Structures are given as C-alpha cells and as structure tokens.
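hey so i finally got around to running the thing on that chain from the lab meeting. sorry it took forever, my laptop kept dying and i had to restart like 3 times. anyway pasting the input first so we r on the same page abt which one it is
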Amino acid sequence: MMIHMNFSIPLFLKLFLLSSMAAQQPELRTLDSKFEKNTQCLNPEYLLFSAQAKTKETPALLIYLHGGGGVGDNVRRLQGQAHALLAGIKKFQKGPCHVVVPQCLRKRKDGGRGTWEAKDLDLLLNGLSTNLKFDPKRVYLTGNSMGGYGSWAWGGQSPLRFAAIAPIVGGIGPGGPKDVTPNLDQWAANLAKVPVYAFAGATDRVVPAERSERMVAAIQKAGGKQVKIKVYQDQGHNARQVVYSSKEFYDWMFGKKRK
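ok and heres what got predicted. didnt touch it at all, straight out
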C-alpha cells in the first residue's frame, strides 16, 4: 500500500527560501594596481552590489566593513553579510545605492596580524572613485565588531569623505576588544565633523558597550553635535541583526548628505 504524505512548508520559510534564491549576486572587482601596491592589509578583490533602482539619480555608495570572522583572501564568502543591507535599502526605498564589501587580509604584507587600516581604505575609495559612478556627497560607512573598529578608525582619519558613519559593536583599538587607541582624542576631533550613530549591545561579552560609549563621549567632548548612540538592552554582540533590519537605521543614514 502506498502512503501519500503532504508536507507543508511554513510561510516564513517559503519567504526566506524565495528571498535567498532571488538574492542579488555581486560583481567581483579588483582594485587597480596603482592603488593596491600601497596597501598593507587589504585584499585587492572586493564585492560590488550595483544599484538596482532604475532612476536618473546618481547612486549613493554604502561601504560595509566585516568583522573578525571575515578576514582572509576569499572575499566571495562575505556575500551573505551584505544581504541584510541590500534588503533594507530595498524595503525602505533608499536606492539607488551601490554596496561595496572589501576584505581585510589575515596578515599584513610587512608581517603581523592584519586589521582595518584607514590608509588602505582611503586607497580603496580612491580606486572606486575612478571606476564607479556614485554621488561623492552620499558616501556612507558602516561595519560591525572589527568592522565597527574599522569605521571608527577610518572615520577618525578621513571624516570628510563620508555623509554618515554607523559603527556597530565596534572596538576602539587595533589590538582587539581590550585595546584602546592612543589616538582617541584625535579620532574624536575628526569624528565631531561628521554625523555618527553608534550601536551596541548591553549584554555584549565580546566588545563591551562601554567602548562605543567612551568613543561617543569623546566626540561630544570634542564639540560633536551630530553624534548619538543606541545601546540595545536585550542584545549582545549580534546587535547588527536588529540594526540592519530597522527602519530607523536607514532613515537616519540616507537622510544625511555631505555639504
């Protein structure tokens, strides 16, 4: 006797499978050698998710910096990390916007552990400016964990390249969560020149919320009037999942434009 079984898939799972199947595929690009030769910790390959909205408006540019788990020399494995941002841009109608995902190498060219370096990232943006059409007054920066540190560090050196910066659960030192940069006051003075919205989790045991709070306090002390912070009381180190799915994040970020 043959038994027929009818398996039903929950609606939320169907939607997840459909969105995964329809996920935008990135273009693998390589930084021009005239810029790459001067980098220390940057994989010359990066992912470009081109703007999808078909309008006459020049696209904005959002750069996402990955956390420590993303270091290496295979940038394609970071593809999934951009999907929440792509979904948010589409859902909250913030396009057209390119999304670029670079990768930090595990080791520096001159030896030692790789980390996000502002000079490397400046070279990346210089390269993007030569081969990608985007609005230079609408360049946005965000990253989580190690990428949050990278956002603080890059913004702390080159703040006027950005319309807005949003570090998430980020450290404030190149040596890891317990480290504090000796350049904190210098970063703060520069970050006071640009809108900054920091996010942290109160229960984060990897990078304590105090790191983000300390950086924000330093920016305020330096005269920053466009800085704020949100600490999620019920979130830990995975706070980015809440941030990147919130309308508030996209409304704030895409509401900023450099003068």
